[in-house]
Design the sequence.
């Protein structure tokens, strides 16, 4: 399958011509071709458009393709897609493959479209529809790394940095698969320090991480006193000391620039900020909820389900690109998160050895900081939707400061006027972000706080979100 949304330097016609020449098996192309076959699929046109139609028809004929016109209603979504056709080779029809392919596409089209959105949204949504690439997408982000900050992230690693990273690991940290604690490295440093520094530097120079270094033991910590199912356990990653040192070096460098990238709606893990700031602000915004004389207000407390374990790697890496992290640094992060292989500790023994496909490890020093960057894109997406859609109304006391949400690690407080359009917009952004990043709201733990001024719409707002109504309390997220 060929994705037909292209930009210079290679054109759609060039790509499909190359595909026709080198692909032996049946293939098809789907997407927005920005042109139609004839005027019946278009609303008006010009001589230039008619000329382009003729060129497009000629290309289809020369490539041996067949145009498959769209089906369904001309209205609503279908009307918006009239320029989006499908092209297939004759061999598809001869082998009756097209019918099967169409049936499969109809069955799974929602999933396919969601995957396509996941791939292109940072390339388009964050830049307001322009398809100019990730560099253009960065223009939607208010704060990115300067060239000096980016260069500082990839300076050569010194032996002093490496030693500091090892000595910064707590003595009583759990053992990784290699069976060593940081105490061993600290006491033996005069004898092994030079070799250890060489091993760590090998990673930063080569950009490749040995699987033995990134191997991880998962320890299942019960969340309940009497756990009965897998979801009742929290997996904590016990990494090798050598890996932790590498991760700490990356963290120390990220730590220096994080405050310049992250909006003040996030205070957790950001240098110079305190979670108490957001707690006090939340407490102020929640005041008067139990009094009908104040305006209609709604606060939505989002608990992100299996937050660290659910982050999509491609989304995280593209987030780093958008924030202007240098390619070399992104490669270091990619090696750290994608090469991990896991064994599970059960009853004192290790079981299994399997690779992950998404997520960041609880127990990895870099994970909290990477997660903060992911959540910053959530904030940016929310801001963009509020600015462009026009159906959202700010919570009382929030508009002047532009307060949309407050982040507390993997918990988020959303604030809005207590009306249907605003709540629908929040719900839509949550669903969009879930598709992009893999992070979803936990419906059993997420709650809604409605002010007493909201009367007739209360149940409708709860039905839209699918969350439980929480009684007003002043200790939301620890606010006392």
Sequence:
């Amino acid at each position: 399958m060929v994705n037909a949304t292209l930009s210079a330097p290679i054109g759609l016609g060039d790509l499909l011509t190359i595909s026709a020449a080198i692909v032996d098996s049946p293939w098809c192309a789907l997407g927005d071709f920005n042109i139609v076959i004839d005027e019946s699929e278009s609303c008006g046109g010009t001589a230039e458009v008619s000329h382009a139609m003729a060129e497009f028809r000629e290309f289809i004929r020369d490539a041996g393709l067949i145009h498959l016109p769209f089906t369904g209603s001309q209205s609503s979504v279908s009307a918006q897609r009239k320029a989006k056709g499908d092209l297939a080779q004759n061999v598809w029809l001869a082998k009756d493959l097209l019918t099967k392919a169409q049936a499969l596409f109809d069955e799974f089209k929602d999933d396919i479209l969601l995957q396509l959105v996941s791939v292109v949204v940072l390339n388009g949504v964050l830049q307001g529809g322009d398809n100019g690439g990730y560099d253009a997408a960065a223009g939607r982000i208010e704060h990115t790394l300067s060239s000096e900050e980016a260069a500082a992230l990839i300076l050569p690693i010194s032996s002093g940095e490496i030693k500091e990273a090892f000595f910064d690991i707590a003595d009583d940290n759990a053992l990784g698969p290699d069976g060593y604690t940081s105490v061993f490295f600290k006491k033996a440093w005069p004898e092994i320090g030079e070799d250890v520094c060489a091993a760590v530097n090998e990673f930063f120079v080569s950009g490749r991480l040995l699987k033995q270094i990134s191997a991880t033991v998962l320890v299942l910590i019960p969340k309940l006193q009497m756990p009965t199912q897998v979801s009742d356990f929290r997996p904590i990653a016990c990494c090798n000391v050598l890996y932790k040192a590498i991760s700490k070096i990356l963290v120390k460098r990220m730590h220096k620039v994080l405050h310049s990238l992250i909006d003040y709606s996030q205070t957790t893990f950001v240098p110079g900020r305190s979670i108490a700031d957001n707690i006090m602000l939340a407490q102020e915004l929640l005041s008067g909820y139990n009094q009908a004389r104040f305006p209609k207000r709604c606060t939505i407390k989002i608990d992100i389900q299996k937050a660290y374990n659910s982050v999509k790697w491609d989304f995280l890496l593209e987030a780093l690109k958008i924030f202007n992290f240098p390619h070399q640094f992104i490669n270091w992060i990619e090696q750290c998160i994608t090469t991990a292989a896991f064994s599970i500790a059960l009853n004192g023994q290790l079981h299994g050895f399997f690779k992950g496909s998404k997520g960041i490890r609880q127990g990895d020093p870099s994970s909290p900081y990477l997660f903060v960057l992911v959540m910053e894109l959530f904030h940016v997406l929310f801001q963009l939707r509020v600015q462009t859609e026009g159906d959202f109304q700010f919570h009382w006391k929030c508009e002047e400061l532009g307060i949309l949400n407050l982040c507390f690690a993997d918990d988020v407080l959303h604030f809005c006027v207590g009306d249907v359009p605003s709540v629908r917009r929040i719900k839509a952004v949550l669903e969009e972000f879930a598709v992009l990043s893999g992070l979803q709201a936990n419906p059993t733990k997420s709650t809604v706080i409605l002010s007493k001024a909201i009367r007739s719409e209360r149940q409708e707002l709860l039905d839209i979100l699918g969350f439980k109504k929480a009684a007003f309390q002043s200790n939301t997220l620890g606010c006392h």
